[in-house]
Amino acid sequence: MGRSLITVPDDVLEKIEENGIPKKDASEELGISKPTLARLLGDLKLRRGDLHNYDAFRSLHLTSLQVDILTSISPIDIAEASLKDKIGAFKILRDKQLVSEGKPTEIKGLLGYLIAMEKEESVDVKASEVKLESLKTIDIPNF
C-alpha cells in the first residue's frame, strides 16, 4: 500500500495563487504540508503553462499578420477607398486598440452616428427589396 494521493481542485489552487494567500495559511486550511501545496501549485503551473504559451504564440502570430496587412495598404489605396470603407477600417483598428488597452469598444460621437446611419440605411434597403420581391409574386387576374 502507498500513501493516499492528495488532490486539491484546480480552482482552489488558482485562488491561492491569484489572491496571494501565504502558503503556510493555505496549507493549514487545506490540511496538507507546505511542500505538498508547493508541489500541487507547481503541477498546476506545468499543466497550465502549455495553454499560456499557446495563447502568447497565437497573439504574436496575429500581430504579425496584422502588420503584414497594414503595411501592404498604400496611401493610394487609402485615398481611393470610399468613406464607408475608411470608417469601417477605422472602427476595426480602434476596436482592436481599445481591446488591447482593456477599454470598451463602443464608438461614440460623429463616427458612431455615421455608423448607425449606415446600418439603418442598410436595413431600409433590405426592407425595400423584400417589399419588391413580395410585389412580384402577386397574381393579377385577367379581365
Nearest-angstrom radius of gyration? 29 Å
Strand fraction: under 5%
Distance between the termini: 99 Å
What order do the SSEs take from the amino end to the carboxyl end, as H and E?
HHHHHH
Task: Supply the key terms.
2 domains; mainly alpha; 143 residues
Structure description:
With 143 residues, the protein is mainly α. It has two domains: 1-72; 75-143, no CATH class. It contains six helices and no strands. Helix 2 crosses helix 3. It is elongated, with a radius of gyration of 29 Å.
List the helices and strands and how they pair.
Blueprint lengths: L9 H10 L3 H8 L3 H38 L3 H6 L2 H18 L8 H28 L7
Give a short synopsis of this structure.
With 143 residues, this protein is an all-alpha fold.
